[in-house]
Amino acid sequence: MAAAEPAVPALPNSGGVGAGAPSGTVPVLFCFSVFARPSCVPHGAGYELLIQKFLSLYGDQIDMHRKFVVQLFAEEWGQYVDLPKGFAVSERCKVRLVPLQIQLTTLGNLTPSSTVFFCCDMQERFRPAIKYFGDIISVGQRLLQGARILGIPVVVTEQYPKGLGSTVQEIDLTGVKLVLPKTKFSMVLPEVEAALAEIPGVRSVVLFGVETHVCIQQTALELVGRGIEVHIVADATSSRSMMDRMFALEELFLVASSSMVLAVDVSWDNSVLLELGL
């Protein structure tokens, strides 16, 4: 049995994270490679927020072309164990991000039977704030048209629709598999996970919408963490700030809408291409 690793040491109140952590937060030691950095997260934080915190602490050192697993130090075993499903931070703890030895599969052709389209938060209230919103609406509509023609399931989310409105009218939601409200950043809701589980052999997700550096990025990270290949459609995603968009896209796997549709491995005929305007 591995030697017991010492518990997280007490941290000083001055300049550290410990007894002086802000109300409603829990001190956590985030470990990556040879580094260990104390921070704090909201009480009840789960996998998504832990990943977000790892990125904020170690973003420039994390190779996004690898798969990772989050592990929790378990006192009863004296070593790290894989983060339990549904884990939520409730007390002081230590976690680490471990790169797996295998690299992510190189993006290749898409197969309709193993692909799902994710349309993220293309809502009316974002229209005046998001750069080039009209352009990404146009591209998004063409992507959904292609999904209908090819029989690819589509999942649509709307961020707090009571306050931010529904999906814009230009986006035709005819035939989509799910339209779900959400209040978290990621699209990976329990209902979405259940829907993916119902589709045998899902390997790839084509992801587009807003905002690139928030909901798109968090959704991509969660999907990759579950072993799903993610294709971000660069000309169908944007943010309020072009700098935010640029830095987010540098970390993600990008395709253009036209090349993405043509990458779907089907027997094309000219009528399909003409209908999509390609």
From TrEMBL:
Which SUPFAM superfamilies does its entry note? Isochorismatase-like hydrolases (SSF52499)
Q: Name one Pfam family in it.
A: Isochorismatase
Gene3D superfamilies reported for this sequence: Isochorismatase-like (3.40.50.850)
Residue ranges annotated for the Isochorismatase-like domain, each copy included: 115-253
UniProt source species: Ceratotherium simum simum
What family is this?
A: Belongs to the isochorismatase family.
Q: Which protein are we looking at?
A: Isochorismatase domain-containing protein 1
